[in-house]
Amino acid sequence: MIGKLNHIAIVVPDLPAATALYRDTLGAAVSQPVDLAAHGVTVVFVNLPNTKIELLHPFGEASPVAGFLAKNPSGGIHHVCYEVDDILAARDRLKAEGARVLGDGEPKLGAHDKPVLFLHPKDFCGTLVELEQV
Length: 134
What we know:
Helices cover 20% and strands 36% of the residues. It is an alpha+beta fold. Strands 1, 2, 3, 4, 5, 6, 7, 8 and 9 form a nine-stranded mixed sheet that branches.
């Protein structure tokens, strides 16, 4: 059901420093920061030959990653994102298997302007999983 690994998201306490680390120290191509107010994050994408790294930083008071940073002040891996062909079919199959879809269960537009859903980490070996329709 799942396709390629789309990205690994890392929450960072200092977005400019993390961007510089990937760009200047590791030599990766990075995007400009993009504020995603609807998701409460600012993102920078690190483009790699086989996937992307999504650097996440809180945006606004109600940011969902602010709590993550409070518990992990140095930051860390937040989620992995897998591609799916049909997000509604994937959701329905996963729910039938007992997986919990976070939120109201309806896809929302993600950072790539494609439908996304998040799956409860307790159902996936302690890892928050994002599904993105391609």
